[in-house]
Amino acid sequence: MNFNKAQLGAIEHKDGAMLVLAGPGSGKTAVITHRTKNLITKHHVKPSEILVITFTKAAANEMKERFNSLMKDERVNVSFGTFHAVFFTILKYAYRFTSANIADESVRYGFIREILSYYRLEYKDENEFIGCLLYTSDAADEEDSVDIGGSRIIKKKKIDKNKWFL
Asked: What count of other Cβ atoms lies within 10 Å of the Cβ of residue 91?
């Protein structure tokens, strides 16, 4: 594969973390896999000290497959994962968290109910109000919204967990 000057700069980058930010189809995966190989083969970085993080499980798996293909028969222990998987692993090993320690939907609703009770906020439908608070998009042009106390709360019609919070 032929790389441009910016891509080669990213591949050759040695010291410290690096963010690769580019549009779809621009060669990000190739750059990251080649950089990872370069760190190991040229700069003698221990594979176990390399962490490659991406957004989706599919992207992490694709990157790992391409990297392993690039390394041919050499078995190396580089960690590939999503932000969620990596941070859950940190919580699991550093703080002994399990999936039971992570707040599920009923717990999140409970937290919000406590806050609403404390502040004695007024609303028509408690579940709708809490749902709007928990699953609000920052998109300003959503079709479905609710006005609460002079503020516009935007509801998502289609679930997009990447834009949820709490």
From this structure: 15
| pLDDT cut 90: percent of the chain above it | 37
DSSP letters of 28-59?
A: HHHHHHHHHHHHHHTT---GGG-EEEES-HHH
Q: State the number of CA atoms in the 13 A half-sphere of 70 facing the CB.
A: 21
Secondary structure of residue 136 in the 3-state scheme: strand
Residue 140 burial (10 A CB sphere; 0-12, 13-18, 19+): exposed
What are the phi and psi torsion angles at 129 (to 5°)?
Answer: -60, -50
Using alpha carbons, list the distances in angstroms from residue 110 to 2, 47, 99, 125, 129.
54, 43, 18, 15, 13
The arithmetic mean of pLDDT across residues 105-112, rounded, is 83
Instruction: Express each pLDDT in 23-43 by its tens digit.
Output: 888 999 999 999 999 999 999
Q: Would you say the pTM of this structure is higher than 0.85?
A: no
CA nearest 99: which of 90, 88, 84, 109?
Answer: 88
